[in-house]
User: Fold these one by one.
Assistant:
Number 1:
Amino acid sequence: MPSVSKGIGLLVLAAAVLSFPALAPNPYILSAGIVVLNYAVLSTSWNFVGGFTGYISLGHGALAGLGGYGTALLVTRAGLPSFVALAVAALCVAALAVPIGLAALRVRGASFVIVSIALVLILLLVFQSWASVTGGSRGLVVPRPFPGLLRPEHHRVFYYLFAGLLALALLAWWVIDRSRFGLGLKAIREDEDKAESLGTPTFTYKLIVFVVSAGFTALAGGLYALWFGDLDPVFQFSILTGSYLVLMALLGGVRNLFGPLAGALIVGTALEYFKGQFGNTPLHLVATGILLGLVVMFMPDGVLPAITGRWQRLRKTPESSIREVTAAELRTERERAEAKP
Amino acid sequence: MPSGALLLQSVILGLLLGGLYALLAAGLTLYFGIMRVVMIAHSAFLILAAYLAWWSHSRFGVDPLLSMIVTVPLFFGAGVVLQRALLSRLRAITLTMMSVLLTFAVALIIEGLLGYAFTGTQRRVQLGYGSASFGLFGARIAVVKLIAFGLAVVALAALYLLMKKTTFGWALRATIQHRDAARLVGIDTEKVAGYGFGLGLATAAIGGTALSLDTTIYPSLHWHWIGPLMAIIVVGGLGSVPGAAAAAVLLGLIQSLLQIPLGTTWAQTIFYLALFATLAFRPQGFFGGRLAQRF
């Protein structure tokens, strides 16, 4: 009865997420919950590219920053209503992702990573220097969408907005995962040459999924701007944010629908806790670096697959005949078989 | 229209800067050639070497250039360890992506430790000859910049001779060209790859020392270097050392000239523009060979 247990698990998860505002003892905890949810949305959005195609982007922090600044500028300069501005900004970022993707995805992985890092660096440069439009290092204040609300109420509303966006992103990922499009993307991840020779339009697929990912990332960034109300280029266009997203998704497991969410819960909670306890110290960087290194070296498939694997071994269920095996696993298996005699 | 002396000055400064870029890009190209690894931590090691040079000067009063006696072998060893103990253990099939993350993690650790050990305060080596300069047709060239350039040129020349004239260099180039074939003719490619990484990091040690002579350093400075350096290796064609050197000198020169009308901050964008233009119109780079086609 895997579908029933899955349904129950989903209900429990939804109930836990939705009841958190009622259980949170004070507004600070609630705002920390929003930050973690924001990470979950961003990391799930990242996973559209990272999980399906295996292309690792370190620049998604910048796409979120663009969404945030786009929303803020459309509200303050063009006078659009907050949520219209959010939608327009997300569309603009998605449109901008097309030329970026055209440049970054024509060749294989290495150039993509380089472009994603360059994106963060160039946007930081532009948004810091172009002070007449962006406010530069002084920051940019975003007017609140609900001026009448008190702070705890404001948090509560945005918590549910973020939860809704997370549900939307998860649903989109789930739908793609099941589609022919998703199969093509996963074929790219496993072996791009073979996928191409079998007729998958690899470049178009990669570009489409990159644009979708950019759109969701920009939505999350714009929503964050409306909630937080103050933008600073140093934090919006930070390579560190991008690396947090990668760390969360990898830790949770990129092949798994809920992997990035699980990773965001673990890493995001830890980040908020340590920020509260120790403030911002250089040791943050060290801890992030060590954790990322450990995950890459020892758990490249994430904790969720590790746990489910152990669980299945405990229950000793017979393995089904068809399972997802990566090309890397096949290779190690083959090598092991060759080494034996 | 800027005066002739100003133009000359910019051209000379651009060439001097380009020399340093060329040395550092050569290291990045080596890693990429050997293992298809984009080594994000290269510039973090560069800043680490600059800090070590500054620290040995302010603590023991030795000339920053002498710190290379320690840092070059140290970094060589670190490169060998990095390749043998970490990068070579990654799965071959996801190596390019995972190695980026791993070297990124190393860069974060170095930046964090530098910030912890020396704080975020900006540091600068105070040298007796630090402000010395001489005139050339109306342009003023600082002596330290010339020393830095000289270091880069000597190191690049040594690297070139090593690659072309020694048995080890042949083995290294064979490993880069075709790993399996190299193994067939009896080259221990694992060992050679490790030494190749050591060589790459040794260039970072030399570059960092040159950098410390005339630059104010702080822990997060490496982000300002990795962007331009990665742009250079893409423009030059991933894996091509001469291509990287040519792109480095050219882009350094353009950056220096653009600083006259645009100022230092906006002049930096030339690297990213060149990166995007290259990928959009000629993804294999302008000097790239066979390797660059597929990455």
Number 2:
Amino acid sequence: MPTVEFEGHTFNIDEDGFIDSFENFNEKWIQLVKKEEGIDELNEEHKMVINVLQDYYKKNGIAPMVRILSKLTGFKLKHIYELFPSGPGKGACKMAGLPKPTGCV
Amino acid sequence: MADFPKPKEMFDSIDYALPEKQWEDVPPDLSPGNFCYPTKRKNLEYLGLPANKDEWSPSDEDWNLPDNWQTIIHEGFKDLLGKYRSLKIFMDTCVRCGACADKCHFFIGTGDPKNMPVLRAELLRSVYRNDFTMAGKILGSIGGARKLTKDVIKEWFSYFYQCSECRRCSVYCPYGIDTAEITMMGRELLTLLGLNINWILEPAANCFRTGNHLGIQPHAFKEMVEFFCDDIEDITGVRVNPTFNRKGAEILFVTPSGDVFADPGTYTMMGYLMLFEHIGLDYTLSTYASEGGNFGLFTSADMMKRLNAKMYAESKRLGVKWILGGECGHMWRVINQYMETMNGPADFLEVPVSPITGTRFANAASTKMVHIAEFTADLIRNNKLKLDPSRNDKNIVTFHDSCNPARGMGLFDEPRYVLKNVCNNFYDMPESTIREQTFCCGSGSGLNTEEIMDLRMRGGLPRANAVQYVHDKYGVNMLACVCAIDRAALPPLMDYWVPGVGVTGLHELVGNALVMEGETERTVDLRQEPLKEEEEDADE
């Protein structure tokens, strides 16, 4: 499995650069993905999205569907794209350390 | 994907010129972007499938095949030929007439001769001749035989994952050779060597663990459906009350998990829930049989059988009379063509009878499973629904026959009958692109993964081209379908080739048009967007 090093931490990543397991997530991961996403500084809204994603994942073992993410944060999909240019999956979920959903999606 | 080609560039890059080299001498392109990611080891282990020695990538020179890989394939091939007389016939009967050659959407979109169904089958057939026929053994390459080498394995991996098992080619084959089954056999053989793709086997592993491809656990499944109930109440003022795992219900409803997770399928899910509430259907959802799809179909017969068994197991446990199935594509191929002999007989179920109309679905006498489009068409035909099609007036709709319900079960007229009753504006695409000749979305059979987006856009080109035709001619702006992979795959396809065309499930439009008892005046559709375009404009 490929690895990436960032400020003294080594992360195992998959082909799309998602972390191998949420268990290996730490704050450094956010800093790393933040750079990839071209975000200078995380604001309160970014942090809220990440917290909501992680809370949901801890409870349910999957990422929330987009409509639930919108409801829990109060942000429309368009605004989530403004916050995370790669979108809720490849941007926000990736930064939060969640795996990518697979199947008919 | 910064270097992704623009539509015109992609279109102009398709080259149908005669290749300079013989096909045997052209290696497959396994550079990044041209293959699906291999299965993660944890998923192979979970499913009890052979795992390759180490982590690998199709772009590696050495695939770390097991030492006895040739024996494994030879014995595996022999085993399949013994099990399936159809395979032996398909291997023996092709006369290379070429009728299938230009019928494959992947050939049309790539111009690659190995995407001609005849040549895709030849990849396997040449090895068959070499290993299992006298003529091949004596005549060798003159007789079309080819030795199995590591490069052949690579070629199989490349091209059996460039086929979406849509079976359009089979419609034109004078012998009825089912190239989808050839692809299935090819994938099954590759799986013996630990070679398969993660986008298929992670959902399969999830399905064994949680009951559905997405890995939705029971409590989350219930919560998601209840989320839709809240939205339905906001839109219509009517509270719908689905039940879960309820013993003694008359009907078990099974739909792909994409419908409870991914937009726009979620709106179709809302449509089902509204319909069932409105007609007072005695049904239940299951958090165990919470998946209609079956990614086992794309891996091996054994995997398909094991995954599919849960629908009958759950219906037996709950004591229902029959099973109603949602808008899924390949689910219906599994049900209609394999389920009874594979998992049946379901003698604990009854021949389905609609409790609302009394119609006996004799066509479902063996599987005891009815497709939701037939069920709803029957309700409409018997005047059991009050519909206001004008609520769908902003949609000018065409219908994409999803490959498997179309060619796998002949479901052509029911969805159109429903559409014509719930919409005022419906236009079919040209005849050679619909019904049994329908073109694939380009992402079926587990190929709806992002790393091969270039191939998906090429494979979806013929479908998009037909949509473009009705878009230009009639102003079509909505593509309806009855498959969850379609609902996931067609939106990016439309955005790429025909911007301005949305994608919907059939029952989303039913939900919009359905006049429910006690409902408040509707101002928005199921997407909570204004019913009429003008209001939307005024809003913004």
Number 3:
Amino acid sequence: MKNGETHISSFTSHAIVLIVLLTLTFISVFVTGWHLGAFSVTVALAIASVKVATVVLNFMHVRHESLFIKLMISGVFVLYALVIIITFIDYHLR
Amino acid sequence: MSTHSTHSEQIESETGKLGMWIFLLTELFLFGGLFLVYAVFRAQYSEDFHTAGRELNTFIGTLNTVFLLVSSMTVAMAITAVQKDKKNLAIFLIVITLILAGLFMMNKYFEWSHKFEFKIYPGSEVLKNMPRGELLFFGLYFMMTGLHAIHVLIGMILLTINIFKIKKGGVGSKHYLHLENTGLYWHLVDLIWIFLFPLLYLIT
């Protein structure tokens, strides 16, 4: 909701988002089937991140939310990324 | 007067949604902690995780991913239907969501009972005698998918409550915060699965 106006997403746009998500799922299943080690891991996680962003922006309507909510959500994702990075730095320097 | 009530309703909707988001972000860290444990142990015992991960059925995992993705769409569509005042369509879409969630849980049931048949469950002798990394993998597998399944069940209860709310008029085209927040919760369940699926089933 922005400036008091409610955004109503259309049924078609939801269907398109689903097709995108399913396509990405099958791509990740297909690519990891090759068993390319580190490459598979990177591709699978990159695709998962794109899927998460797609769901958050479209199904969860964050695309149409206020700037405050957008900043709060992205801030927490950044915080979580930092937690992972700092843990691994700590783990490697022991 | 009418402008005043619209304004306060709008504020209620904004704050209600904000509260839900804050809750969802704490949920993210609940699962995030487990993902972090997974990442560290995977780095430490990559060989064992590789062996143990092959025990999981990719087909069932993929099928469950499809169920959850489609159910996420039907919930999003149910909100659109309510906003457009199409109550019966909204109820129909929520029922479809519940069926998909049921199929997901049924798959999960078969998957877990298959593991139990091979005496693989938390605390079993077979599991205790496995290499340390495999033990950790299955421990995380049961913990993460179990916690996720509890969330699916809670989501199903919330969705059912919404069906009654739509019928009785508690949720309608003017006030649908309850359904919106249930939708957000349901999408969170989907988001967690989007990461669980490649980590447990794909990257072996």
